[in-house]
Amino acid sequence: MELLKDWKWRYATKKFDTEKKISNEDLQNLKEAIQLAPSSYGLQPFKVLIVDDPEVREKLSPVSWNQPQITEASHLFVFAAKTGMDKDYIEKFIELRADKQGKSKEELQAYGDFIFNSIKDKSNEELTHWNSRQVYIALSNLLTACANQRIDACPMEGFDNNAYNKILGLEEHGLHAVAVVAVGYRSSEDSYADLEKVRFPEEVLFETV
Ligand SMILES: Cc1cc2nc3c(=O)[nH]c(=O)nc-3n(C[C@H](O)[C@H](O)[C@H](O)COP(=O)(O)O)c2cc1C
């Protein structure tokens, strides 16, 4: 399987080449990889900020344990989960679905009600966690797409989520920073590139029942 080669090639890049930028065409493909990720009911309860502004990235650096990827990578993707879930959002999703699938809103009403009934008794915190889990599926799509295109990436949770919310103004948009992916090209000085992969063996990881 070709994909196995891609996953073996990739590693969590620590040091990026600051001179190399990913092309617009590659960026477009990576965005599409995120867009095509599956999500529960198809709701895509998140937003992805691509932080271009060097000044903003400088501000994010100290609240990311000063990890060099934040300022040195070509592009920085910040994945923010929607906080909670509401009828309006589900309504908008149903409208989109009706439009895309050539159905009437009425035809899809039962599906919308079904989604709403499944979430209406959950707390905001539970819903935000649920939304965050959808984020990780999209994040994984991005990592795989990068590897496939021989673009380096580092998934990151080592940052202060609340500080990101403040700096990027996420809270007022009903969003919460969950994870970051730094994307670009490895520096020839990144010693992590040559390290052996560390993974538990099959017999530890799998069980047939
Ligand atoms: C959700 C998540 C959060 C991570 N956070 C960081 C991080 O903040 N900084 C970092 O350098 N690596 C981070 N990593 C990278 C992991 O340490 C790395 O994926 C793991 O050690 C396996 O190594 P490999 O990706 O090079 O195969 C993170 C990985 C994931 C999936």
TrEMBL record:
<dbReference type="Pfam" id="PF00881">
    <property type="entry name" value="Nitroreductase"/>
</dbReference>
<comment type="similarity">
    <text>Belongs to the nitroreductase family.</text>
</comment>
<keyword id="KW-0521">NADP</keyword>
<dbReference type="InterPro" id="IPR000415">
    <property type="entry name" value="Nitroreductase-like"/>
</dbReference>
<dbReference type="InterPro" id="IPR033878">
    <property type="entry name" value="NfsB-like"/>
</dbReference>
<keyword id="KW-0560">Oxidoreductase</keyword>
<dbReference type="GO" id="GO:0016491">
    <property type="term" value="F:oxidoreductase activity"/>
</dbReference>
<protein>
    <submittedName>
        <fullName>NAD(P)H-dependent oxidoreductase</fullName>
    </submittedName>
</protein>
<dbReference type="InterPro" id="IPR029479">
    <property type="entry name" value="Nitroreductase"/>
</dbReference>
<keyword id="KW-0288">FMN</keyword>
<keyword id="KW-0285">Flavoprotein</keyword>
<feature type="domain" description="Nitroreductase">
    <location>
        <begin position="8"/>
        <end position="185"/>
    </location>
</feature>
